[in-house]
Design a protein that fits this description.
This protein is of the alpha/beta class and about 300 residues long. The chain folds into two domains: about 180 residues, 3-Layer(bba) Sandwich (FAD/NAD(P)-binding domain), CATH 3.50.50.60; about 100 residues, FAD/NAD(P)-binding domain. It is about 25% helix and about 25% strand. It is built from seven helices and 19 strands. It has a five-stranded parallel beta sheet with strand order 4-3-2-8-19, covered by helices on one side. Strands 10-17-11-12-13 form a five-stranded parallel beta sheet, with helices on one face. The structure holds flavin-adenine dinucleotide. The site of flavin-adenine dinucleotide has 39 residues, from helix 1, strand 3, helix 2, strand 9 and helix 7.
């Protein structure tokens, strides 16, 4: 049987943005609910080193500490998957499989999920030698033998960026995309090796030694950077007709992270901003302060 409960604000996602908002709202003595299905991108980050005052912190630790801190200010954090959000009158309703929760404000902080290439033996190296985010982990590749995986014009540009910032020892592996001749010449001039082929298996046990390709050849490498982006966890918002950017992917928000629908805020990489934990947390704080102002007006 479905139950229904009402709150001042519902937050979808116990992410850095969602939890920071919950901490602020909890400290305004607001009734706040965080619904989270677990296992987000932050949770997968093994070593976060660019968060102020935290020389090294795992994403799991960040989330677990954040949940405890939010709960210490009476925010309710529950496990569940929001399947749909609807809006009627001034209220948002967030439905999970067994309950519906209502509130005049909702924060979407549900992040995304990695688009990973199908490569055998990837799991053990995800976040240690196999990376997906330059801002997060590019620094780790400094002076290392790097394999860059992708299949787009942007991957070629990323190769030049990695070359300028981190390492001269780069192999660029593209499966189907063939760069224009001018790009190929510039890659050769920079000493970046270009290989066309399909990856099959990461070779190595404790550390990455090479990438085996489907044609049987091997590319020796110590680290792999994958440039296939991530998909947004926004299915539950589909019915709301929110404005998105030209790519049709990211939600457009104002400087308080409010979407085109009044009362619905979007923080973290679902909006058009940067994909970083500390940025998402800052956005969560801004959204929560604005929501509290609005609750005072109500
Ligand atoms: C391997 C890796 C390393 C990274 N390293 C760094 C780093 O070093 N520094 C840095 O700043 N950033 C790093 N990031 C990026 C960082 O994790 C995110 O940019 C940032 O934390 C923002 O989190 P998020 O909004 O993506 O949410 P997430 O951390 O993905 O959390 C979203 C939460 O919402 C939940 N959720 C999704 N949909 C629903 C739903 N329908 N109902 C209920 N719950 C739902 C998910 O279960 C998840 O718990 C890394 C990311 C990865 C993948």
């Amino acid at each position: 049987m479905k139950t229904e409960q009402s709150y001042d604000c519902i937050i979808v996602g116990a992410s850095p943005g969602g939890l920071q908002a919950a901490i602020y709202l909890g400290r305004y003595n607001r009734k706040v609910l965080v619904i989270d299905r677990g296992g987000g991108r932050t949770f997968l980050a093994r070593h976060i080193e660019n968060f102020l005052t935290q020389p090294s912190l795992s994403g799991k630790e960040l989330i677990e500490r954040g949940i405890a801190q939010a709960r210490s200010f009476n925010a309710e954090v529950i496990r569940g998957s929001v399947v749909q959000v609807t809006h009627a009158g001034r209220l948002f309703s967030a439905a999970t499989a067994n309950a519906t929760y209502t509130a005049p404000f909702l924060i979407a902080a549900s992040g995304g999920r990695e688009n990973l290439p199908q490569i055998e033996n990837l799991g053990p190296f995800f976040g240690s030698g196999f990376f997906t985010c330059v801002d997060c982990d590019g620094y780790r590749t400094t002076g290392r033998k790097l394999l860059l995986l992708g299949d787009a014009d942007s991957t070629v540009r990323l190769a030049f960026a990695m070359h300028q910032m981190y390492t001269k020892d780069i192999t660029l592996l593209l499966s189907t995309y063939v760069p224009p001749e001018a790009y190929q010449e510039a890659l050769a001039d920079a000493g970046i090796r270009l290989v066309q082929g399909r990856p099959r298996r990461i070779v190595g046990t404790d550390r990455i030694e090479a990438l085996a390709l489907e044609d049987g050849s091997m590319i020796p490498c110590e680290m792999i950077l994958s440039d296939f982006g991530f998909a947004h966890n926004d299915e539950y918002l589909q019915g709301l007709d929110l404005k998105r950017d030209a790519s049709g992917r990211s939600f457009i928000v104002n400087h308080q992270y409010e979407s085109s629908l009044r009362g619905l805020f979007v923080v973290g990489p679902l909006n058009t901003g940067q994909d970083q934990a500390i940025i998402a947390a800052g956005e969560g704080a801004v959204a929560a302060i604005e929501i509290n102002h609005r609750l005072l007006e109500l």
